[in-house]
Structure formats: structure tokens, C-alpha cells
Amino acid sequence: MKNFEFHNPTRIVFGAETVGRLDQLIPAQARVLILYGGASAEKTGTLAEVRQALGQRSVQEFGGIEPNPSYETLMRAVQLVRAEQLDFLLAVGGGSVIDGTKFVAAAALYDGEPWEIAEQGGANIRQALPIGTVLTLPATGSEMNSGAVVTRKATQAKLPFRNALLYPRFSVLDPSKTFTLPAKQIANGLVDAYVHTIEQYLTYPVQAHVQDRFAEGLLQTLIEIAPPAVATPDDYATRANLMWTATLALNGLIGAGVPQDWATHMIGHELTALYDIDHARTLALVLPALLDVQRDSKRAKLLQYAARVWDIRSGSEDERITAAIASTRHFFEGLGIPTRLSAYGLGPDAVEAVLRQLQAHGMTALGEHRDIDLARSRRILQAAL
Ligand code: NZQ
Ligand code: ZN
After folding, report:
1. What is the 95 CA–ligand 1 centroid distance (Å)?
2. What is the pLDDT of residues 104-113, one digit of tens each?
3. Ligand 1 lined by 91 (C-beta under 6 Å)
4. What superfamily in CATH does domain 183-383 come from?
5. DSSP H or E segment with residue 31
6. CATH for the 11-177 domain, from 3.40.50.300, 3.40.50.1970, 3.30.43.10, 3.60.20.10
7. Closest ligand 1 atom to the C-alpha of 68?
8. Residue 195's pLDDT is what?
């Protein structure tokens, strides 16, 4: 196992009817900004519940944060925070709203052009406003981590950043808030959480037994709950398991002390920025192809994944690896999520366009061995055609 420090300060308040707890979670004197997305938070009644829980506090609202939150939109929230001297940010929504809120939290106190935060991956954040979240979409893990991803529409740049100051103070996770999600978003959430787990697990062995077993447990849980999660929106037990699994997939626990490979995400971000494909859907395009191209350097873990997650134990090593990759592809396809670029009408031109973006963003040494250079990214994308 590698050396590590693990500190996750986010308080999780989990369960049905927990939005009312906001009253105790946010300081009474706070000047609060509620941030939310499009119409869903109002339509589902969650926003009304939040307003009620905040009682007599000074509260303002900022709506309209779009999926894959944009710098352009978020800078309007930054202006509001500065003008009104707001001092507590409450995100009500999915990963996009929470990520956007993290950007606002840092940008409002940043001395300089805030886009530098994204350009420097968050290393230049010195202070940030406190944030809390009410999660309405289980997928990203943003509710219990210090990372975020923002897009600058003008330049089609979608960049990740992180800083320990950006952990939410608390996150309210009420699984019944997910009942209103379209099936497509649930499928996206299952795939996003699955790929987060894979990217911290499917590298090379470092004798990290409990991280491996945790990761395999999360993967098996996602496979098991996928059918009812999609088919039965108001199945509370299933949604509770999905919500907690997605949080655990990216809250630092399974990634502590192990190598990580975020190449699928970095290539996926470029596909979203260029072609507006949902985040999780880009991951389903890249991952099976990446596993195939990287099958030699990931051999030991691919065999472990085949045996322990998919119960594939017979055949030659290469046959087992091929079968495990096929099972992964079938899992995504079974959720209605394509694993081929052609499903989006994309061909060889798109491969070259993504490569140009990767180069522009310095994404030229990806993967656990930093061996995914542009030539290898080209092979991966070609394998995904
Ligand atoms: O905008 P509204 O009307 O609210 O609708 C949203 C949105 O259209 C809707 N929705 C959310 N909760 C709902 C609901 N509809 C009905 N009922 C509810 N309860 O869902 C749509 C998608 O929301 P979004 O927040 O965009 O989805 P998701 O949570 O998948 O977030 C994706 C973003 O997170 C980033 C992605 O890159 C992408 O920008 N990620 C953030 C990570 C992190 N911070 O650690 C890690 C991830 O890998 C990911 O990169
Ligand atoms: Zn993701």
C-alpha cells in the first residue's frame, strides 16, 4: 500500500425527511445563497422545503446553473455573492450545481481572474466560502469530495480542480429526492459511480486488500441494484443504496493508498466539451476501449476484476480479460448507454478533434503509469469508434 493521508470533513446527514435538518446545520446568522439548476428543484418541491427549513435567515437565490456548469453563468453568482456580502452557499441539486457552487465559493474570494482557479487545478485557492449541499442526483460524489469540474463555453474547455477548502461542511442525502429523476439520469449515475470506482481500482496491485474489497463491493452493488434503480423510481431501499454507493465511490476512501487512473474522465471531459454528450455517457464510450488498449499493464487487476466482480474464472488469461471487458460493455449498454462513438454519429474526425483538445489542455501523460500519451489516446478513441 502507498503512503497516504485521509481526512474527509464532510458531515453526511442521510435519510428520508432530512431537509429540515438544515436549520441546525447552517449558522443562524448566516447570509445564505441557495444555488440551484433549471426547473427541477422548484418543480419537485425541494426548493420550497429548503426555504422553509432556513426560516428567518437572510436568504437569496441563484438559479439556472446548467449541466456541466459554465464559468459564464457562475461568474454572475460570484458578482451576487460579492455585491450582497453573502457568506454561506447552499447547493440544491446534482453534481453540476454542487461543482458550480464550489467554483463560486473559491472565486468569490479570489484575488485575480477566477478562471485561473480551473487553469491551475485549484492549487491557487487560498480561501473559500463555506458550502453545504442538498443532493438530488446520486452520481458524482461531489457532495463529499473536494473536487469540481467547470466549463468555459467560449473556449470549449472543461477543466477539473480541487482543494481541501472545497469539501462541503455537510451534505443532506435524502434518497426520496431521487424519485423524480428521469430514468436516463439514474442510468448516468450508475455508470458514473461505476467508472469512478474502476478508476481507483483497475490499475495494478499494491497489496491494498481492503481498498480492493471495498471497490469490488461497490461495483457489485451497482450491478445488483441497476435494474430496480431504473425500473422502480420510488423503491426507497434501492435508491438509498445507490445514493450511498455513489458517494462512497468518490469520497477518497477507496482511493487512499492506491494508484489511480483518471484517463477515462479526462478524455470524456473533452467529448462533453466538444459534443455536449452527458458526462457519464462519455465514460461509457471511453472505458471499454481503454481497458482493451491497456490490457497488458492492467493485466493482474483485470484478472482479479473478472473473477471477483463478474465471476469469470475459466479460460485463458486473455479470454477472461476479454470477457470481463465485454461484461462491462454489456452492463452499460443494458442501461441504454452506448459504448461506441458511432452511436452519436461521431467518426475519425472526432478522434482528431479530441486529441487536439487533450493536447491544448496538457492531457498528454495520463493513466496510472502516465503512459497514455496522445498516440495511445488515439488508439483508445479509435477502438471506441
Ligand atoms: O437543472 P435541473 O432542472 O435541476 O435538472 C437536472 C439536470 O438537468 C436534473 N435533476 C437533478 N436532480 C433532479 C433532476 N431532475 C429531476 N429530479 C431530480 N431530483 O438532472 C440533470 C443533470 O444534472 P447534473 O447535476 O448535471 O448531473 P450530475 O450529477 O451527473 O453531474 C454531472 C457533472 O458533474 C461533474 C461532471 O463533469 C458534470 O459536469 N463531475 C463532478 C465530479 C466531482 N465533483 O467529483 C466527478 C464526476 O466525475 C464528474 O466529472
Ligand atoms: Zn464522473
Report:
1. 4
2. 999 999 999 9
3. no
4. Dehydroquinate synthase-like - alpha domain (1.20.1090.10)
5. strand 31-36
6. 3.40.50.1970
7. 39
8. 99
**Crossing angle for the helix pair 317-334 and 209-231, to the nearest 10 degrees:** 40
Residue 301 in contact with ligand 1 by CB distance below 6 A: no
Is the CB of residue 94 below 6 angstroms from any atom belonging to ligand 1? yes
To test the pocket of ligand 1, the residue of 102, 145, 184, 185 to mutate (highest count of ligand atoms within 8 Å of its CB) is: 185
Residue spans of the domains in the chain: they are: 11-177, 183-383
**Residue 40, pLDDT score:** 98
In angstroms, the CA 282 to CA 277 distance is 6
- Which residues are close to ligand 2, an ion, with C-beta < 5 A? 192
Q: Which residue type occupies 296?
A: D
Determine how β-strand 31-36 pairs with β-strand 88-93.
parallel
280 Cα: distance to centroid of ligand 2 (angstroms): 6
Q: Are 47 and 36 in contact (CB under 8 A)?
A: yes
Q: Which atom of ligand 1 is nearest to the CA of 180?
A: 17
**Over the stretch 89-134, which tens digit does the pLDDT of each residue have?**
999 999 999 999 999 999 999 999 999 999 999 999 999 999 999 9
Q: What tens digit of pLDDT does each residue of 159-214 get?
A: 999 999 999 999 999 999 999 999 999 999 999 999 999 999 999 999 999 999 99
Q: Are strands 157-162 and 147-152 parallel, antiparallel or unpaired?
A: antiparallel
